[in-house]
Design brief:
The protein folds into two domains: about 150 residues, Alpha/beta knot (3-Layer(aba) Sandwich); about 55 residues, Trp Operon Repressor, Chain A, CATH 1.10.1270.20. It is built from ten helices and nine strands. The radius of gyration is 21 Å and the shape is elongated. The longest helix has 19 residues. The protein has a five-stranded parallel beta sheet with strand order 2-1-6-5-7, with helices on both faces. Strands 3-4 form a two-stranded antiparallel sheet. It has a two-stranded antiparallel sheet with strand order 8-9. α1 runs parallel beside α6 and α9 crosses α10. The protein is α/β, with parallel strands linked by helices. The two termini are about 30 Å apart.
């Protein structure tokens, strides 16, 4: 898949998108991530992409023209399944959304900044608005990085052990079971005997029970959402 990220701070994203899982996915040819500097598309001689809001409100607003021109330039080269805007009032980003987006071929992520973007862009060009949480960040770059990482890592072949991604938290609307590694006894803190038994069926049953119990205790809302 291909992800195009539009931002006023490309230097903030470029190191991240070339490291770890995202870098590995690109080297394998399983994903492409391209970061675009919105200032390259402004017609302002000072490379400004924002202006004062009508109505006397506080803050600055990202202008239509550079965003429109950037998206148009990208769309002239290929079709896009989604044009996503990172917004605190968008739909909540979840593992289910990440799984869904991983099946897309091409997506654009527009990073919000300042007080936000001119609402006409949201009305006419944005197909989906997504929030990574009920809080406000200085810009959408961190949100875009979070989404890119969560989406790319579940693409088949990106992670060597694909079962690892499938057993992550939230894949079945439940938290993961506890995990342990060697030594089996550290300062008297012992690994549960069942995990040392080698009995695959019993271990699987223990894992499922732990997932359910931990979810009930720590995130009961996940089970309520599943019932809804």
């Amino acid at each position: 898949m291909r992800i195009d990220i539009i931002t006023v701070l490309p230097e903030m994203l470029e190191p991240f998108t070339n490291q770890s899982i995202l870098g590995r996915a690109q080297s394998k040819g399983l994903a492409e991530i391209h970061v675009h500097n919105l200032r390259d598309y402004t017609k302002d001689k000072h490379r400004r992409v924002d202006d004062y809001p009508f109505g006397g409100f506080a803050g600055m607003v990202m202008q239509c023209q550079p965003i429109d021109d950037c998206i148009a330039a990208l769309k002239a080269e290929r079709d896009y399944d989604e044009v996503i805007y990172t917004s605190p009032d968008g739909e909540q980003f979840t593992q289910a959304v990440a799984n869904e987006l991983s099946l897309k071929e091409n997506i654009i992520i527009l990073c919000g900044h300042y007080k936000g973007i001119d609402h006409r862009i949201r009305e006419h060009l944005i197909t989906r608005e997504i929030s990574i949480g009920d809080y406000v960040l200085t810009g959408g770059e961190l949100a875009a990085a979070v989404m890119a990482d969560a989406v790319v890592r579940v693409i088949p072949g990106v992670i060597g052990d694909e079962q690892s991604a499938l057993s992550d938290c939230f894949q079945d609307n439940m938290l993961s079971a506890p995990v342990y590694t060697r030594p089996a006894d550290y300062k008297g803190w012992r690994v549960p005997d069942i995990l040392l038994s080698g009995h695959e069926a019993n271990i699987k049953e223990w894992e499922l029970n732990q997932m359910l119990e931990r979810t009930k205790k720590l995130r009961p809302d996940l089970l309520n959402n599943e019932q809804d």
